[in-house]
Amino acid sequence: MDIPYGNIVTAVITTATTLAAVVVTNWLSYWRSNRERLWELRREIYGMILSELAAVEHICDGIDEAVAERGYEEYWNTKSRQRDDVNISERMGTIRKNVSDNYLSLITFMSSGCRCSISLGGYQSGHSCLSGMVAMPDQK
Q: What is the pTM of this model?
């Protein structure tokens, strides 16, 4: 009785190829799924950071208007300046804490200039009210 070696080899090759294709497909879908979850996490983190920065910019807009109306020295001596300083400091502290807490999620995306400038404590919006905040450490 002759054993059909050609059929056996074909069956083994087909089985091995199918198994390899399933493994590669599962690996690629797992990798893509993890990448998508990481992007979702980054979007959430960056959304919080950007909303805090928008709030700081809104405060700075008010400071710029107050300085334009009353002058720098008069604004400097008001309680609203102290309130604005505390508010900006708290928001920048929240941003720094969020960057620190989520550093590993953010560091995997090295081309983000946003992460670098925020983690160094500087937000370059062009507002003069932040010039002192950039060089100061966290005030909490």
A: 0.55
